[in-house]
Specification:
single chain
Amino acid sequence: HEPREILLNLESFSLNKGQDPLAALGLEVMQPKLPPILGQVMDGDVAQKAGLMAQDRILEINDKKIEDWY
């Protein structure tokens, strides 16, 4: 179905102290997988000095394969 915009009123919903209201409702925040591609490298920053450029794809960090930003 088409995504909808929903306003939730949880004033009457009782939560335990520190409890995540979305988790209490059985909901999870959607975290789409984002490819590890650099969007921007700041001029003069450490990344630029290391040779990184915008649109570079990160394949590994410290010998650990990276498939997405999560």
